[in-house]
Predict the structure of DegV family protein.
Amino acid sequence: MKTAVVTDSTAYLPKEVLERLNIHMIPLSVVFDNETYKEEVEITASDFYEKMKESKELPTTTQPSIGMFVQLFEKLSKEYDAVISIHLSSGISGTYQGAITAGNMVEDIQVFAYDSEISCMVQGFYAEEAAKMALAGKEPKEIIARLDELKETTRAYFMVDDLTNLHRGGRLSGAQALIGGLLQVKPLLHFADKVIVPFEKIRTRKRAMNRIVELLAEDAAKGIPYRAVIISGNDEEAALEWKAELEPQFPNVEFRISYFGPVIGTHLGEGAMGLGWMKK
């Protein structure tokens, strides 16, 4: 059985990785003043953050249409017997459900939709693993079983540097935003039951980042090899500095650098920082 792998743009996988592993990407979109841009296709992360600074209104985000999924799956059916479609958490987007609906509408190809229950490059790790197994000729059910195994070791934490977007998006009251800003509160967030929820409230950026490192250390102490990714909201320099600090501390962890692109950046804002990991 020949299996294709699909993921959505919020995995923020580099173009080189998509091409090398033959991963097909379907984009979500961000909307500024009724102008819609497909992320990773029509707008870059850096352009997005510049545009967001200039915009009076917080942009909105949209998932891929069912038609986009159907078109992609039908195209893949000409060459593949099955497709594993890996998406951002169903608790924050209907993209995964869209893949299921479209999969039921196409013929000549089996569609296995997979809910990563997370997003960003950690979601990309699932897509990479699936693609390597697909290229090695593994069956879809074997690939999904492997993804489920990895999910048990997957953790990710995000620090919001500026509360403005959470406030503008209606997720934080004006009073909370003001007080949080005065106290330098940096909400530490994570995914639980498929949605983003507060993990801890920490007073400063440095303490928040140190807390994330403590959580990584708990897992790294097990001695098994991990893959990890440092994710920044338009601050690659800070991400590279953090990577340089962490690599000597955790020789059994392979670190990479990524970013919060337009769709996720809409909610977390510029300056956000995250760290996610799973076993190799």
In short: The first strand starts at residue 3 and ends at 8.
